[in-house]
Amino acid sequence: MISVLLVGKGNVATHLHTAFLKTDAIAVTQISSRELKNIPKADLTIIAVSDDAIAEVSSKINNKFVVHTSGGCSINELKNQTRKGVFYMLQTFSKGKEVNFNEIPFCLEATNKKDQKLLDKVAKSIGKKRYEINSEQRKALHVAAVFVNNFTNHFYKIGNDICTEHHVPFEILHPLINETASKIASLSPEKAQTGPAVRKDSKTIKNHLDLLNKEQQKIYKIITKSIQNSID
Fold first, then answer.
1. Whole-number pLDDT of residue 129
2. Which stretches of the chain score pLDDT less than 50?
3. What integer pLDDT is reported at residue 36 of this predicted model?
4. Domain boundaries along the sequence of the chain
5. At 33, is the secondary structure helix, strand, or coil?
6. Residue partners of 135: CB distance under 8 A and separation at least 6
7. The domain 2-133 belongs to what CATH superfamily?
8. How far apart are CA 121 and CA 133, in angstroms?
9. What is the C-alpha to C-alpha distance for residues 43 and 50, in angstroms, rounded to an integer?
10. Is the CATH number 1.10.1040.20 carried by domain 139-231?
């Protein structure tokens, strides 16, 4: 059995703790980042705190193998004097929303093969998709994830605002959202692109712009130009 110490009480730590409790392969203990005076020993210490806190928290931990869970931070952000690694799960986590770890990619990094195998074993105890990803690759993945997740979700928010303003149920768009997401399983994003920007339908684009407020117009114009530049 592998002993795991989770440092943090946020979304990622909460979901990880729940998952580890369900497997016999892991003995998990969880503390908050404020409880670092008496740190339990563990085979693996996972720091699941905000990016800005990784350096400070890790500097206070002397356990033999310490990893963080950040997509945007290098392995060198860890300031512990012992072995280092990264246990990054490429997924969006929200409290109260259950996640299926079997569908989540685990992006793992360690400084030696033994530690890499340990991270793989821990990830395998709760999930199926495991990848050896270095810090530079993970940084690129994290930026890509911001585009496909955070920015896309902001577009959902804008779409919802437009629907609300015009008294249309946002749920009408749900099937379209689902189809758009599922389509890229069989088509490249470039081939899946549709809409007035691709068609260069200037009349429809003008009608859309006339409907939007100034901030929405800025975003619409930038994205439309980006789409058109990508197909020229």
1. 93
2. none
3. 85
4. 2-133, 139-231
5. coil
6. 74, 75, 76, 86, 109
7. NAD(P)-binding Rossmann-like Domain (3.40.50.720)
8. 15
9. 22
10. yes
